[in-house]
Amino acid sequence: MLTKYNIVERKLTQTDEEKAQVYVFTNPSVEEQRTLVKDFEIDEHTLASALDPDELPRLEFEPEHIVMIYKRPKNYSGKDQLEFKVASVGMFLFEDKLAVVLAEDIPLFVGKRFQSVTSIKNVFLKLIYNAISHYIEHLRIIHMISEEIEDKLNESMDNTYLLNLFSLVKSLVYYAEAITANGFVFEKMRNLSARIGFDDNDDEMLDDIIVENLQCKTQADIYSNILAQMLDARASIVNNNLNLLIKKLNIITISLMMPTLIASLYGMNVALPMEHHPDAFWMLLGLGMISVWLVMLYWRHKNW
Questions:
Q1: Rounded Cα distance, 235 and 243, in Å
Q2: Rounded CA gap, 68 and 16, in Å?
């Protein structure tokens, strides 16, 4: 799907004109991909990379345009089972236009940053800035979800909650990797800002982007470490609870062995002491209870 925009009075306005300043190709069809290759002179391999979720971010310079591929969080779906994923976005910056290629429909020009745009390069940078903000929002959501799961784990040791925590840790690892890879590209962009054609305002925004991305990376690492340690702690708690349960079962088993031994000895078909005593049953029952009490007393004395 193709959507076109023009900058009118410092705002992006959707247009149906044949020529526009900003082109957004969402999950482009075969015909639209041909248009990108033929009319925009975009390399087929580069175009495929922009739609590949596993593609690494990079910055390339072509004769007629600049290629920027970066990672952006995907829209979360309940079917993902608390797993947050990333997607690739390709931006192709020409002298007079900007082409954006992405695999899924996501809101791009939202937020206060797009209330005022000055140029195509300004739109280019603000799209990157919005991706970082998207990461930060997802990190906050992950943090909130992890706190809710932690509260539930205090009440229940259901494996479902542990699996949910594992999914969040996995998501944070992917996020940290994507944010780090984006950061390398942003640093390269800053070093080559003059070649790209950025002015002083663009350079200042790019510096803000680098700082914001670094803070986002730090936040993702902190959350990832916290959740990883929480998983390790929960695993230790589960093992400890299992050991305590086995200990209690051993106490019960050993305690029942002594009365069983006494009952087995007096169940033999031979002459036994007290076999003709009228209170033999109660005496043996008491002896079994005393043996249990002695085992428990010894266990407590050893502090087992």
A1: 12
A2: 26
How far are the Cα atoms of 13, 43, 122, 189 from residue 117, in angstroms, in the given order?
11, 29, 6, 20
CA geometry: angle 95, 131, 86, nearest 5 deg: 115
Structure tokens at 216: 């986002």
* Largest separation between any pair of C-alpha atoms in the chain: 114
H or E, element range at 180: helix 159-191
On whether the CB atoms of residues 73 and 135 are closer than 8 A, the answer is yes
> Backbone phi, then psi, for 15, in 5-degree steps?
-140, 160
The burial of 233, by beta-carbon neighbours within 10 Å (0-12 exposed, 13-18 middle, 19 or more buried), is given as: exposed
C-beta of residue 182 within 8 angstroms of C-beta of residue 197: no
H or E element at residue 59: strand 58-61
In angstroms, the CA 121 to CA 118 distance is 8
Amino acid at 160: T
User: What letters, b where the CB count within 10 A reaches 16 and e where it falls short, cover 87-104?
Assistant: bbbbbbbbeebbbbbbbe
pLDDT tens per residue, range 224-251: 888 877 777 777 777 777 777 787 787 7
Question: pTM, whole model, 2 decimals?
Answer: 0.75
